[in-house]
Structures are given as C-alpha cells and as structure tokens.
Design brief:
Elements: H1 3-14, E1 24-25, E2 28-29, E3 31-32, H2 43-56, H3 66-85, E4 93-96, H4 99-110, E5 119-123, H5 132-141, E6 144-148, H6 158-164, E7 169-175, H7 187-196, E8 200-204, H8 216-219, E9 223-227, E10 238-242, H9 244-249, E11 260-263, E12 268-270, H10 284-300, H11 302-321, E13 326-329, E14 338-343, H12 348-356, E15 360-361, E16 363-365, H13 370-376, E17 381-385, H14 392-409
Parallel strand pairs: 3-15, 5-6, 5-7, 7-8, 8-9
Antiparallel strand pairs: 1-2, 4-10, 9-10, 11-12, 13-14, 14-17, 16-17
Bound molecules: 4'-deoxy-4'-aminopyridoxal-5'-phosphate.
Length: 411
C-alpha cells in the first residue's frame, strides 16, 4: 500500500479532531476548501490556549512567581519547537504576528541599507505581503524593483531569474509556494543564484511550511517567513527565521519594553536574540497554541502531510479537469494542493456563492495578488485549497457543486 493510502485511513480521523468541521451549513456538512487563507484548529490547540488562560496566565520573563515562571517556560518551549520545526536555532526564530509582519520586520530593519542603484528582485507571482513592503523600501531608498517572469505553466522562468539577479541585487524575496498557482518554487536554487551575486534571499514560506518539511539549513535561505494560522495554529502569531549572524547585525524593528538589556534617559542597549526583535508583551496564548499545533503536525508527520496533499491534488485535479469549460490556472509539475480555476460563464464570486449553498467553502477574487491577476489576464479566480482533513469526498463535492452551478446558470 502506498504511504499516502496508509495515511488516508488516518486522515479520516483527522476531521474528528476539528470541532468546526462538525458544523452544518445550509443543512450540509462543511467541506472547508479555503486552507490557503487559513486552516481550522484542532481541539487540542483550542484546549492548550484555554489551559494557559485558565491556569497559567501571567506575563513572561519578568515575574519571580510560579505562574509567571510557568508561562515563561511554555512560551520559550514554543519558541524552541517553532525553530526546531524548520531546523533553526533558538536565537534564529523570532515570533511576529504573521508572515506580513515578518516581511515588514526585515524590510523596515534593512531599509537604511538600501540606496539608489540597488535592486530588489521579486517574482511575478508574489502575494501583496511580499510586494508592497518592498515597494515601500524602493520608494524610500531609491532602490529598483525587478521581477522574475513566469512560464506558461505558472512556474518561475529560471532563465529570467538568472537575468534579473545581478551584482546590483541586494535582496531576492520569493514565495516558496504560490497561494494562487500552487507552484512550488526552487527556492534553494534561486538562493544559490542570489548568494553567488552577493545578495540575500528571503523566502515567503506562508504556503510551503504548512505542507512539507523544510530545513532552513538545507534551503540555505537568509530569512524565512510563515504564519501559524495556516498550519492549524491560532491567528496573530507568525515566525521570522533569520540567520544568526544577519539578525545580530540588524536594527530592531519595534522599540520598547522587553527588547532591551539596559536603558538610560539618553539611549538603550538591546536584548540578545531573539528578544531584540520582540518588543512589548507578546502573544503568549498564541505561541502556546502554535506549539500545540506543531506537536499535532509532527504526530502525523510532515512527509505524510506532503503525500496526502499530493494525493488530494492529483485526485481533485482529475475531477475538475473532467468538467467542460473549467480551466485550471497553474499546472506546474511542482505544485502544492491549491487549485485556482476559471469557469466559462460563471464569475468567481458567483461560483463561491453557488458552492456555499452546498456547504463548500472556497475563495474567489484576486487572492491578494492583484498584479499576478493582471499578468495572467484574469480579473480573479476561484480557488480550492486543501489540507490534512480534506478527503476525496470533498473533491467530489466541489466537482458535483460546479456541475450543479452549470445547470443553474445554463452554461
Ligand atoms: N504570502 C503568501 C504566499 C500567502 O499565501 C499569504 C496569506 N494568504 C501571506 C504571504 C500573508 O500571510 P499573513 O496574512 O498570515 O500575513
């Protein structure tokens, strides 16, 4: 039996762990297919946060009393496990609010390093989070933005990458996995090209970290950003990995309490890593919930999660491809379980409403990638994105829902 099949049986149980998936919408069981936007939370994650507030609530790093010591220990354990999850050292993992804040942290901290003549290289498939902060840096510093082109199948054109990255490049920042096309980019190779030109590489791991095992050491990236809420954790907590020697040399992003070692009326000495980048009271409950989510993912195994994603992607792609008039946008060989599509005669928002009536949750619109929509020549797409609790039945339901929509719209 193939590995994913063995896991498939296990996956049937995964749904049971997610209270929200027991809800019925319009009298129908939920088929939650908007995982690229955010994932659902298992009961153990909800319980972990509840337990912190019920039994251990205190501020961290300050109190010389039992519950504060417990809270500090829980928070620091979350830090350690988040780092370990991507093969990073304790001092290299900073908690932020989300991927967006992680990218902003790097952009704002490095802003004074950029000047006219410098170039920042992005790809055409970037999420606004990995685009707008760099537009700001370019505007403030006089640096220039350059874009790596895409191939027909929605993958990165490596020839274009080699052309775009040069000795003028200071930083390359790319999505590891596209939230629209599903494409998994060869971040290691792009990083190698960046490094050989003396540039840094930042990887937007918002979609990739939840889906397969990542080692920052193997990727050899300088920065990696991701969000807990896309991997079964709570909203409001995210991660920034940075190489220790780079983080050490960077200015803080936010200034205030907690991020200092010593303060006078005139100046301040900053705290050691990672606390230098964590100003103010942190999202302690969020970190604890995230730690539990990491534990849950580990108990399934990231290789099983990747294989399950491959299985669902292959099955759903086949089912949707059979529908006349439906065009899948993004057909790279290296793809995660995200399917964007266009359906002749039914605009994406109508499609989402039709499917909602069937209890199926999908996304419609520009998916925070307006320039990419323009590049692809569409106003928006419908998008189904899968995760560990989704089954073949969910893929069948969306296929049947679209067929029902076709009859309704008489197309
Ligand atoms: N990058 C990508 C590729 C994403 O898919 C997302 C979320 N849709 C983000 C960045 C931003 O993540 P967050 O909203 O959690 O900051």
């Amino acid at each position: 039996m193939a590995k994913w099949q063995a896991y498939g049986a296990k996956n049937m149980n995964a749904k049971k762990d997610f209270p929200i998936l027991k809800r019925r919408i319009n009298g129908k069981e939920i088929a939650y297919l908007d995982n690229a936007a955010t994932t659902q939370k298992p009961k153990c994650v909800l319980d972990a946060m509840d337990d912190y507030y019920t039994m251990h609530n205190a501020n961290i790093h300050r109190g010389i009393y039992k519950i504060s010591e417990e809270a500090t220990e829980m928070y620091e354990k979350a830090h350690e496990n988040a780092g370990r999850f991507v093969d990073a050292g304790f001092q290299e993992m900073v908690f932020t609010r989300n991927t967006t804040e992680s990218i902003n942290l790097v952009a704002y901290s490095l802003l004074p390093e950029f000047q006219k003549g410098d170039e920042i290289v992005l790809s055409r498939m970037e999420h606004h989070s990995n685009l707008v902060p760099w537009q700001h840096v370019a505007k403030m510093s006089g640096a220039r933005l350059k874009y790596i082109e895409l191939l027909e199948d929605g993958s990165i054109d490596m020839e274009s990458a080699k052309k775009a990255i040069s000795r003028k490049t200071k930083l390359v920042s790319i999505a590891h996995m596209s939230n629209v096309l599903g494409t998994i980019n060869d971040a290691r190779e792009i990083g190698r090209i960046a490094h050989s030109n003396g540039a840094m590489i930042m990887v937007d791991g918002a979609q990739s970290v939840p889906h397969f095992q990542i080692s920052v050491k193997k990727l050899d990236c300088d920065f990696l950003a991701f969000s807990a809420h896309k991997m079964l954790g709570p909203t409001g907590i995210g991660c920034l990995y940075g190489k220790k020697e780079i983080l050490e040399g960077m200015r803080p992003f936010l200034y205030g309490g907690e991020m200092i070692r010593e303060v006078s009326y005139e100046s301040a000495k900053f705290n050691e890593l990672p606390w230098k980048f964590e100003a103010g009271t942190q999202n302690i409950a969020g970190a604890i919930g995230f730690d539990r989510a990491i534990g849950y993912l580990r108990s399934i195994g990231m290789d099983n999660i990747r294989d399950h994603g491959k299985m669902i992607l292959a099955y759903a792609t086949r089912r949707l491809s059979e529908i006349e008039g439906l065009r899948i946008i993004g057909n790279s060989r290296h793809k995660g379980s995200i399917i964007s599509f266009d359906f002749r005669g039914i605009p994406p928002h109508d499609m989402a409403a039709i499917l909602d009536a069937e209890g199926i949750c999908i996304r419609a619109g520009h998916h925070c990638a307006m320039p990419l929509m323009k590049y692809l020549g569409v106003n928006g797409t419908s998008r189904a994105s899968f995760y560990i609790y989704n089954t073949k039945e969910d893929a069948d339901r969306i296929a049947n829902g679209i067929e029902k929509g076709r009859k309704l719209f008489k197309v």
